[in-house]
Amino acid sequence: DEKKMRKGDEIENFEKKEEACMKLLRGDVDEEKLSGLLLSAKYLLPAGKRSTRKRVYAAAGKKFFDRLARTKKMRHVFLAVMCNLLVDPSVAKEYENKGKMFLDFTVNAARLAKESDELAVKTFSDAVACLEEISKRANLVSNGVIQYTLYILWILKDLKGKLREIASKPCQRLAALLVNQLGTKKHWNNTSK
Q: What is the Cβ-side half-sphere exposure of residue 76, based on CA atoms within 13 angstroms?
């Protein structure tokens, strides 16, 4: 009985947080939407279902996300949230033709990661996660994924210490994305039989 009560309290608490976030996301000014987005990223998206992701995206609106993507100082917020939202197919469909934009963001994040701190490397990791989701729905080869990937890996080759450790997994994922986009993985699988 105590476990059921705790579970019920958790659900009620989640619903209250969700309601508060949605109210902010539907706000009239970008500051409200941004507050709702940051709270959603902390409380809703990690634990949320696809329906929650869809509701967060719909409440803030595509125009808000487009403005956020164009605002250079807020790009890390855009990427941090989008890597969660793009898991939902309906949200990803909105961005499937934006592969070049996400490739550009990844290059810029890699440049910052080389010169900066852990937040820049986290932004790079989020950009790679966005690319991974976009690549599930669109072929990025025509957007120059080969050149971009090689350039990004070249940029980050000199990272040292903790930053190198943090960046290694996104770099591996980026290389795997490249292999998948080129279809080489299928070729390897066929020749090994």
A: 13
Element (H, E) at 52: helix 50-60
Helix ranges restricted to H, 61-160: 62-70, 75-85, 89-95, 99-115, 118-135, 145-155
Q: What is the b/e burial string over 155-193, where b = at least 16 CB atoms within 10 angstroms of the residue's CB? A: bbeebeeebeebbeebbeebeebbebbbeeeeeeeeeee
Q: What are phi and psi of 37, to 5 degrees?
A: -65, -45
Residue at 187: amino acid letter: H
- Tracing tokens 């690549």 back to the chain, one arrives at 135
**Nearest-angstrom CA–CA distance, 177 and 140:** 9
Q: Is the dihedral of CA 182, 187, 192, 193 positive or negative?
A: positive
- Give per-residue pLDDT as tens, 50-70: 788 889 999 999 999 999 999
Write down the mean pLDDT value for the chain.
83
Tell me if 87 sits within 8 A of 50, measured CB to CB: yes
The dihedral through the CA atoms of 15, 35, 74, 114 has a sign that is negative
> What pTM, to 2 d.p., does this model score?
0.79
